[in-house]
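ASSEMBLY PREDICTION REQUEST
Request ID: AP-0331
Submitted by: J.K., bench scientist
Number of chains: two
Total residues: 780
Priority: normal
Notes: Please return the full assembly, not individual chains.
Input sequences:
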Amino acid sequence: MFEYDPVLYSRILTGLTLAFHTIFSTLGVGVPLLIALAEWIGIRRNDEHYHLLARRWARGYIITVAVGVVTGTAIALQLSLLWPNFMQVAGQTISLPLFLETFAFFFEAIFLGIYLYTWDRFKNKMIHLLLLIPVALGATMSGFFITTVNGFMNAPLGFNLENGVLTGINPIMAMFNPATPTKMAHVLSSAYLTSACVLAAIAAFMILRGRTHVYHKKALHLSMVVAFVCAISTALIGDLSGKYLAKYQPEKLAAAEWHFETVEEASLILGGILDENNEVKYALEIPYALSILAHGTPDAEVIGLEEFPKEEWPPLIVHYLFDLMVAIGMFLALISFIYVVMKWRKKWNELNKPLLWLIVSSGPLAMLAIEAGWFFTEEGRQPWILRGYMTTAEGATTSSHVDLMLYLFIVLYIILAVSAVVVLRRTFKENPVERELEKRGIE
Amino acid sequence: MNYELLGITVLWTFLYGYLIVASIDFGAGFFNYYTTLTGRGPIVKKVINRYLSPVWEVTNVFLIFFYVGLVGFFPSLAYYYGTALLVPGSIAIILIALRGSYYAFHHYGHKESSWYQFLYGATGLLIPASLSVVLTISEGGYITVNGDNVSLNYGDLFTSFYAWAVVLLAIVSVLYISACFLTFYAHKAKDKGAFDLLRTYALFWSGPTILASFLVFVAMSRHNDDHFSKMIDLSWLFVLSFLFFLGAVYLIWKKKHLGMSFILVMLQFATAFFGYGAAHLPYVLYPYVTIYNSFTNETMAIALVIAFIAGLLLLVPSLYLLLRLFLFDNEYVEGKR
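STATUS: Completed
Returned structure:
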């Protein structure tokens, strides 16, 4: 297929592992929030439906957590196996957040174990709910720390490199690099959004299947409201991320927008294709929008790709990924808005078929947007592994078996994905809500 | 104590923690499958699952902790081991991934499946074998360092007496540690059937464990003279380890003080493990890397130590709570909660 090149295979394998892990880690960060909300509402309103909702969500969640844990272990170890040269250098500056991430994960793992095995053990239900706080906190903190590592790779800070020797290392500065705040906020907010969309999609699907129990409506309502709030915040934070890029990584923004010449009053390009001479065709141009996205004013100057040597350009396909992410984000905001309005206006029926089908589509679409966003941000910093310091090729392993490992891992992820879907389906299919409500004596 | 020594001691302690908790887990997977095959599954299943379910995830973290700490304190090691271990490391990752997820699939999914149980049991013996490769190559003699290139000599590794002795020790001690712990847990659960069965396993595996330990000694004396002679200097630790072993087996034999017997098992492995580790110093990868030439910069070392202490302040009470709820709570252990 290709000539053997450990760099290429290492990139594909890392991309594959991360793409697979991201599905589960996104749910890992987002779902505890929804479980906690359901349990909290259940306690406040003394509504057994919400308690059951929390229980059932938790039951599915643990399956996704298991896959998240094992793929997370895989990527942690692969960092050294596939990128030994990078780790030797970066290990000097990023091991603090990596170390802290493990602590956060440890904390989460302990309390998740306790939470899952103490449903009926405490007389006061609030105590059981409180156990979720360390779970959610641990998930969020580990998301935070690992994102600072990624931020560091995009905006390295907190060290000097002199003749290949690192000096003046400041781990705190490396952690709180300029990329961290927007990246962190965007990652968290979009994880909550995606988890809410996935859970809403399941509930909507159940209603479409003719399940009329009020339980499903409550599940749909809770997750759609969360989705609406998070869609708005994700979009707002996304705008801040654009401003960050304009200031610190202009080449990434320029590649995403196919913005070649440095001009004022820059327009934003939606869709389109690029021909061999880097001419944009069939695109929709929105005047001034890029200047607004980048600097907040319509007449601001936006740096174009031509300011950078060509060998430092990110691949120009990132434009499609960027557009896909933004388009899906807008779509999610729109349908959750429509749902909320229709629910609020009592006369309108928010459970109409077209809207329910749109909600069903929102789950997979949200996950697709997460993948597109991550691929955009990772491809967008090519050719660098440490922007401005080390290229990806310099960081990779020289080992001669990466291709074989890639095929092994492809098989592993296929097995895991298929089994996880089968197990999740069977768990819920063979034990539908209606039967469980009856069995628990709720009705 | 300098930072290098402090760092490696902390990491070694975590590796020891992993050795104990993971052995319990790995062995339990094997016993779970073995007893199911021989029709005695229902006797021990309850005991195994009651202990394992809430803690399996925590077990995994010990390994990650050790690994991240190692890369943090000794970044150059990431380079040497990372390059050399691509294949065995990836295989270990795949086994760990299958094991973790199939435990969850088997356990939290709606129906139990014997295929999942088989995967869970078989990986329990293969993982210790694949992980022990790291300890083996740390003795030197299996990798070639050629300028910028580090490569593992598979021929030397697979034909090495020492390597196979270590693999053997890893597997039998996993079964021994696990059986000893589960014996204690079944006793606490007042589950006589499980206790009797697990006790025979514990006694059965004690013999091979101590034999394999001696075998590793002999193999070591042939493979790495330098390390072996340092181990002889620390021989009092290994003698102590043997005494702890005798004590533990005696108590299990007499069915007395089973909590104490498991503590003796832990001490048996602690003394041997720290003795082995201390004799290995200052090398982390003989003879290329020592704890001194691979150490991270001082700022990061201080930051890591501070993070470590802060983390422990958070972890120790949480772990205590976990143990309190699932290990030291007699009503839970007996299955009343």
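REVIEWER COMMENTS: Chain B touches chain A through 69 residues (CB under 8 Å).
SIGN-OFF: pending second reviewer
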